[in-house]
Write a structure and sequence with these properties.
Blueprint (H helix, E strand, L loop, with lengths): L1 H17 L4 H37 L28
Length: 87
């Protein structure tokens, strides 16, 4: 993707000059395209990092006092079936 962005940052000013735009105008367009490309690249990396963090957070089991160790696992408590000592 970066190669296409670099290619377009070079190609667009060349096409502008061929079709009659001044060299200064083409250079300004190239700088604008480079700035937009850099901003998009930064945003894409942030998005990828956020998605990677979300995937690792889903894969890691919750930790803490009330975290369950397995599906439906309960330890202790008053309302368990057959927990009465007399019968």
């Amino acid at each position: 993707m970066v190669r296409w962005a670099a290619f377009s940052c070079v190609l667009v000013p060349v096409v502008l000059v061929v079709y009659g735009t001044s060299v200064g105008g083409a250079a300004a367009a190239a700088l604008g395209l480079a700035a937009v490309t850099a901003a998009c690249r930064v945003l894409l990396r942030q998005s990828e990092r956020g998605a990677a963090r979300a995937r690792t957070a889903e894969a890691t089991p919750p930790r803490g006092r009330r975290a369950r160790t397995g599906p439906g696992a309960r330890r202790g408590g008053r309302h368990g079936a057959g927990s009465a000592p007399g019968g």
